[in-house]
Specification:
- By secondary structure, the chain is α+β, with helices and mostly antiparallel strands.
- The protein has twelve helices and 16 strands.
- The chain is globular and about 60 Å long.
- The two termini are 32 Å apart.
- 49% of the residues are buried.
Length: 419
């Protein structure tokens, strides 16, 4: 069964960990549940493909008293992005697209995009593109596309005004969303800055156009089925919904609650459908289990292969997980800020992943070359090739900026290595 993929398969000592130090992970994370900051969580630590630590704590549904279990399904939100990026590189390996291809080659409306220069969100002054938006811009978030929920820039307000904040206007499909995004001014000329936005959703549409398949079918055929990721999908089937975790939001007191956002078209739904949604969002639409995502991460650690199923070539994974920001730039200087506590120092960005360049500058213990990403509901994963380490953390608290769980988890994992 798929859930066995998170079961411990090696002792901490044999994996190079001190068991007492490794226990500090659970000791620390339990506090978040006991004082009400998190509903529940799951953490998995593996080394060289063997699980050295796996635990769950708390509830997947507080109101119903349902525990977080090893096969709990949750929204992985932006941890969908690495999967979409891998899908795009599958097509790259087949020669069906190139990184320098203009996005307009596949989505013609992007040929008419303009760039914000000044003015208000209702009356912006724009300028023409100095170069086309390209596929590599989508993979690296240097396209100029944004998210409405940032609340940092005039272009964010334009996205909100068009109905895009934590979700999409009712009834839109991916193709229509892309055309609307193409009609909104970009925050900057492509390739000149880094900004987190709908780039990976647009990449998902490119995948559909190039492959001739819907995004869910392409994922299933080329990634999910080959890797045995049986619980990962854009919706949660009715026979699996009893395993599906509730989404929580912080109260003013700091405790979690199970109230979804107000029910309007521009807000993320509290739960995905039990059938295929109209819009397949490669940037944040997937749900899945720890077991499934661990298999995806192990495929990456193995440089494209897992249990005889090769998804990507080894050199392609190596290429994706190097810093692709122009001139080797760091996010601290090249990227626009997301949240006050976002730690960009010592970090670069590859083709779908953040890349650790200098842990001393980042001020969190780790290894150069580690690649990672997280999701809006405070989920996270990272792969450290130098230590052959994969770490996965799942919970369901939105937004991810509520607590510095990811950096503290990184501290706790690395302090436990003693070999």
């Amino acid at each position: 069964m798929a859930i066995s993929a998170t079961a411990q398969t090696i002792t901490p000592a044999d994996a190079g960990f001190d068991a007492g130090r490794l226990a500090r992970i659970d000791d620390h994370l339990r506090q978040y549940v006991d004082d009400g900051r998190l509903p529940g969580w799951q953490v998995v630590v593996s080394r060289a493909g063997e699980v050295a630590h796996s635990s769950t704590y708390g509830k997947r549904n507080i109101e119903q008293g349902l525990p977080w279990e090893s096969d709990t399904i949750c929204r992985i939100f932006s941890m969908s992005k690495p999967i979409t990026s891998v899908a795009a590189m599958i097509l790259y390996e087949e020669g069906k697209l190139q990184l320098k291809d203009p996005v307009a080659k596949y989505i013609p409306s992007f040929g008419e995009s303009e760039v914000y220069r000044n003015g208000s969100f209702v009356s912006p002054v724009t300028e023409r593109l100095t170069e086309p938006m390209r596929i590599w811009h989508l993979l690296t978030h240097t396209s100029g596309l944004t998210y409405g929920f940032h609340n940092n820039h005039v272009t964010d307000a334009m996205h909100r005004r068009a109905g895009f904040e934590w979700g999409i206007p009712t009834g839109m499909d991916l193709s229509t969303c892309c055309d609307v995004w193409a009609s909104l001014p970009l925050a900057f000329q492509p390739g000149t800055e880094w900004l987190y936005g709908v780039s990976t959703d647009v990449l998902g549409r490119v995948i559909e156009v190039v492959s001739g398949q819907s995004l869910d079918n392409f994922f299933r055929e080329r990634i999910l089925d080959p890797l045995g990721m049986t619980d990962t999908e854009f919706w949660v089937e009715s026979d699996k919904r009893d395993r599906f975790a509730e989404l929580y939001f912080p109260k003013p007191t700091g405790n979690a609650r199970g109230e979804g956002p107000s029910a309007n078209a521009s807000v993320m739904p509290a739960a995905p459908l039990d059938h295929k949604p109209t819009m397949l969002g490669g940037g944040g639409g997937l749900c899945g289990t720890a077991a499934d995502y661990l298999r995806f991460a192990h495929m990456l650690l193995n440089r494209g292969e897992l249990d005889g199923a090769r998804v990507l070539g080894s050199r392609t994974v190596d290429y994706m997980t190097r810093n692709h920001l122009p001139g080797g730039a760091e996010l601290e200087t090249f990227g626009r800020p997301l949240f006050a506590e976002t730690q960009f120092a010592g970090m670069g960005f590859g083709l779908g992943f953040s890349i650790e360049l200098d842990s001393a500058e980042h001020k969190v213990i780790g290894s150069a070359g580690t690649y990672a990403w997280g999701g809006a509901a405070s989920t996270a994963f990272w792969v450290d090739p130098a230590e052959e380490l994969v770490v996965l953390f799942l919970t369901q608290l939105l937004p991810s900026s509520t607590y510095p769980i990811r950096s503290i988890l990184q501290q706790l994992v690395y302090q436990a290595l003693v070999d």
